[in-house]
Design a protein that fits this description.
The protein has 257 residues and is mainly β. Helices cover 0% and strands 47% of the residues. The chain has 2 domains: 113 residues, OB fold (Dihydrolipoamide Acetyltransferase, E2P); 94 residues, OB fold (Dihydrolipoamide Acetyltransferase, E2P) (Beta Barrel), CATH 2.40.50.
């Protein structure tokens, strides 16, 4: 299996803490990750090695989080009561979290997407459409055979005048940083098939390897400080389509599947 990595950095609502089976210091948290371009949240079940003895609010609080993530699969994680795997998009391990203090209110968001850093071997590419695809194997605490299917999309407006010339070939090793902008889903199961990362600035080609192994990328750059939305996962459903504003708070409820 080729070596690769994928990390997600975002402001997340962490809630519903529960113990991880057989792990006395590990807690599993539901994470709501608002994606402005989608108008709704991506939901993850993230594990945190709580050697610091942090206390997490059952009803949720905002944190600045970096996590190693992979696609949710059936039977690999402890879920919230009444939830099933199809209610989640991601699983993962929290690398770092910083609580955001003083925010129990809605504020107008800026257009800051969750940031993803990826390194891995390219499976396929479409220079005319401006994208390439990778499947990143991930060693997650809950699933040692996890993976994150990624579609790296270079927009028409980017630093590259001709995006077709920067699409890596199959078997090439690429390292890039971009924003999570969409999730492609299976029409039958509604489970994620590809996580779409918009790459407009940072893309490195690391050559080819006969072993098809990819080196780890450099440390994630910190996101710039921005206005964010305070929300709770229990109020976020995939069908959410309300407009966010200073005056309007979320009233949509999650519809169990």
């Amino acid at each position: 299996m080729p070596s690769a990595t994928a990390t997600l950095t975002a402001i997340m609502s962490l809630e519903s803490p529960r113990p991880a089976p057989g792990k006395s210091l590990t807690v599993v948290l539901d994470a709501g990750i608002y994606v402005p371009s989608m108008g709704k949240a991506v939901i993850a079940a993230l594990r945190f090695f709580n050697d610091q003895g942090l206390v997490f609010d059952e009803n949720g609080a905002l944190y600045f989080v970096t996590a190693k993530v992979a696609k949710m699969k059936k039977g690999v994680e402890t879920l919230s009561d009444g939830w099933v795997e199809t209610d989640y998009d991601l699983i993962g391990d929290i690398i770092q979290l910083i609580k955001i203090e003083g925010g129990k209110k809605s504020v107008k968001p800026k257009h800051h997407q969750p940031l993803v850093q990826v390194a891995g071997t390219v499976e396929s590419g479409n220079p005319q459409a401006g994208y390439f695809q990778l499947t990143i194997p991930q060693w997650i605490t809950a699933d040692n055979s996890a993976f994150l299917p990624v579609k790296a999309q270079i927009p028409l407006e980017s630093k590259w005048k001709d995006r077709s010339k920067v699409i890596p070939e199959k078997g090439g090793i690429a390292s890039f940083v971009g924003h999570l902008t969409d999730v492609e889903r299976d029409s039958q199961t509604d489970m994620p098939t590809r996580f779409v990362i918009e790459v407009s600035r940072h893309l490195d080609f690391l050559g080819r390897s006969s072993s098809h192994s990819s080196p780890s990328p450099s440390t994630l750059s910190a996101l710039s400080q921005a206005d964010v939305i305070i929300f709770h996962i229990s109020n976020l459903g995939r069908s959410f389509s309300k407009t966010w504003s200073h005056e309007q708070s979320l009233k949509a409820s999650l519809r169990p599947r």
